[in-house]
Design a protein that fits this description.
Helix Hairpins, three-stranded mixed sheet, HSP40/DNAj peptide-binding domain, Chaperone protein DnaJ, four-stranded mixed sheet, single chain, alpha+beta, heat shock protein binding, 4 domains, repeat, zinc-finger, elongated
Length: 384
């Protein structure tokens, strides 16, 4: 069976440019790859045919010979293989041909950079930055705006981010011809490595910018206004797109992530959207009942009634006096926990009054009565 015309195989015209040939091959390789056509038994042969065509047409000398003599340029009729052509396209360097599109086919699965092309893309996205920001509980309650200073990098204004003096565009690397990698033949194998001249960028700067030394970016400190929404808590993350490190040689900037830490409060303890406040009350107030004034997180005051006979640890709820939920969703409550205080530094008269109280005190304290009842039962059990 006669071979098909190589231009026909790739679906291009005879006068197609090198870029058009490469683009056409990439499309065919993606379309015909056997892993993507497991139900088509002819895909492998078609895939090899496309590789053979590209191996010839991508090389200017091979292409010129093919344009003049056709397939006969590489078969035995032309002397069993022309010098420099590797014994014909059927025996050509498959790895060399296929590696040009390998990253396009599988780059996403191999963790390649956005935009593909591996080392052939000179622009690199800047790194993301993290900034830890501490706020008070009051600021977390009401929301606030903070001005922060971020150490970062920005595009060099002297070279407009190109890395070249005067803003000139970098030139194609002469060593790797813009591929970012070089190949070395070692017997049957072809070994690829990162280009030592351009470091895999594919381009070089002949006259580096004196301000950024060819990097295209400089170290700066920037001030940034950050809006802190009501309801934030420790661990809340706020993203500022494009406010991270500047990209290398014109690449896009990374993002800035602000991590919130809410400082401990002297009066309130937070539990999600609820607040807890421990309030001391006198022994007399706890026994007779009364009122205490407690602070609220919004800066206000609330009067709380203390029931007669209140014990330490008793909790009372103030509805709607807690923290707001982040991005809406209601407001928590505030819980008051009573701490009954035993008086100290008593005067002689106060001690006398307490002794009189002790003499007439009846055993009707609920917790004490329950405790001593259990003690009595315990002792009785030990005697049997």
């Amino acid at each position: 069976m006669a071979k098909r015309d190589f231009y026909e195989v790739l679906g291009i015209a005879k006068g197609a440019s090198a870029e058009e040939i490469k683009k056409a091959y990439r499309g065919k390789a993606k379309e015909l790859h056997p892993d993507r056509n497991k139900d088509n038994p002819e895909s492998e042969a078609q895939f090899k045919e496309a590789n053979e065509a590209y191996d010839v047409l991508k090389d200017p000398e091979k292409k010129a010979a093919y344009d003049r003599f056709g397939h006969a340029a590489f078969d035995g009729g032309m002397g069993g293989g022309r010098p420099g052509y590797g014994g014909g396209p059927g025996q050509g360097d498959f790895a060399s041909a296929f590696s040009d599109v390998f990253e396009d086919l599988f780059g996403d699965f191999m963790g390649g950079r956005p935009g593909g092309g591996g080392g052939r893309s000179r622009a690199q996205r800047g790194s993301d930055l993290r900034y830890n920001l501490r706020v008070s509980l009051e600021e977390a309650f009401a929301g606030t705006q903070k001005t922060i200073t971020v150490p970062s990098s920005a595009a060099c204004t002297s070279c407009n981010g190109t890395g070249a003096e005067g803003g000139a565009e970098p030139q194609t690397c002469p060593t790797c011809s813009g591929l970012g990698k070089v190949r070395a033949q070692n017997g049957f194998f072809t070994v690829e490595r990162t280009c030592p001249t351009c470091g895999g960028q594919g381009q070089v700067v002949k006259n580096p910018c004196r301000k950024c030394h060819g990097a295209g970016r400089v170290e700066v400190e920037r001030q940034l206004q950050v809006n802190i929404p009501p309801g934030v808590e420790t661990g809340t993350r706020i993203r500022h797109a494009g406010e991270g490190e500047a990209g290398l040689r014109g690449g896009p900037s990374g993002d800035l992530y602000i991590f919130i830490e809410v400082s401990p409060h002297a009066l309130f303890e937070r539990d999600n959207t609820d607040l807890h406040c421990r309030v001391p009350v006198s022994m007399v107030t706890a026994a007779l009942g009364g009122e205490v004034e407690v602070p609220t997180i919004d800066g206000g005051r609330s009067r709380v009634k203390i029931p007669t006979g209140s014990q330490s640890g008793r909790q009372m709820r103030l509805r709607g006096k807690g923290m707001p939920a982040l991005r809406g969703g209601g407001v928590g409550d505030m819980f008051i926990e009573l701490a009954v205080e035993t008086p100290v530094n008593l005067t002689s008269r106060q001690k006398e009054i307490l002794r009189e109280f002790q003499e007439i005190e009846v055993e009707n304290n609920p917790e004490g009565a329950s405790f001593f009842k259990k003690v009595k039962s315990f002792w009785e059990g030990m005697t049997h």
